[in-house]
Design a protein that fits this description.
By secondary structure, this protein is of the alpha/beta class. It contains eight helices and twelve strands. The protein has helices at 47-57, 104-108, 132-143, 162-170, 186-198, 221-233, 252-262, 264-277, and strands spanning 3-6, 20-21, 36-40, 64-67, 88-89, 92-93, 112-113, 121-122, 150-151, 175-179, 208-214, 237-242. Helix 3 (132-143) runs parallel beside helix 4 (162-170).
């Protein structure tokens, strides 16, 4: 079936085939053959525009469906290239944790394994909560790929084991992301950094990365900068992730703070300063 997929915004992970659109339908003489329309919405604050697109695409007279994470989609099997760009792959859904800032447990429930499809960029919410058998199956799949693996969904430092690190090194992992969101994440992050370095990863390669949540209630610029500095000291390149509520609201000053920490030249400078000092 030829399904048009409509997205309220474009990201690095958005599919890029000829049936993907980011607005209303094109002119009828430019319209490809379409049997169904799916409007996929990730963020709750994009729901109004997603619903407007659904209304606009109804003019085609084919079924129009609106869904995605913003609509608390439970998530079932994963179809490569459908709602996420080819190469990105999800091998599990859900998470057993209940972090106050994360919607995954509410939407998808506890961790559950799904069939392992081919891809190189793992975007599971919490791969390491899966069984050892499943994790090894994911590593085996990644070892077959032409591209070096990336774990951009995030790996939980608290449950990282030495054998995970060893296998990630063996399959030539290009980049692995961990997280440092609240103070209690720091000690596990330090141990994760040590395990990854013991397995053969080097801080110079910048393969070790760390998402740092910033801008939530009670956070300050000083605390956020300290977390990112500590992430560097633990061996990771920090990536500032700006907290937004369900309406998408955020403080403009925090947005500017985030932008500075996403500039490669700024981050590289900070990494050099911290590592030269410590």
């Amino acid at each position: 079936m030829r399904i048009a997929r409509i997205f309220p915004r474009k990201t690095k992970a958005t599919p890029d085939d000829d049936l993907v659109f980011f607005n209303g339908p094109p002119r009828l003489d430019e319209m490809p053959e379409i049997e169904e329309v799916h409007v996929s919405c990730t963020f709750t604050y994009d729901k109004p525009i997603a619903e407007e697109f659904a209304f606009q695409w109804a003019v085609l007279g084919v079924p129009v469906k609106v869904g995605g994470p913003a609509y608390d989609a439970y998530g079932d099997l994963f179809t490569p290239g459908m709602y996420i760009k080819q190469g990105y792959v999800m091998t599990s859904r859900g998470c057993n944790n209940h972090c106050w800032f994360c919607m995954v447990p509410k939407r998808e429930g506890p961790i559950r394994e799904i069939p392992v499809m081919d891809g190189y960029n793992i975007i599971d919410s919490n791969l390491l909560q899966c069984s050892d058998e499943h994790i090894n199956a994911v590593f085996d799949m990644l070892e077959r790929q032409k591209e070096n693996p990336e774990f951009t969904g995030g790996l939980e430092a608290k449950i990282l084991k030495p054998w995970h690190c060893k296998r990630m090194k063996e399959i030539k992992t290009k980049r692995a992301y961990f997280a440092y969101d609240t103070p209690d994440d720091y000690e596990p992050l330090v141990y994760a950094g040590r395990m990854m370095i013991d397995a053969g990863f080097t801080v110079a390669s910048k393969a070790l990365c760390c998402y740092c949540l910033i801008g939530y209630k009670g956070d300050t610029f000083e605390k956020a900068e300290e977390r990112m500095t500590q992430a560097i000291k633990a061996g990771f390149a920090p990536y500032a992730m700006l907290y937004r509520d369900e309406k998408g609201k955020y403080d403009r000053e925090w947005y500017e703070f985030q932008k500075s920490w996403l500039k490669p030249e700024w981050v590289n400078k900070k990494i050099s300063e911290v590592r030269n000092k410590y």
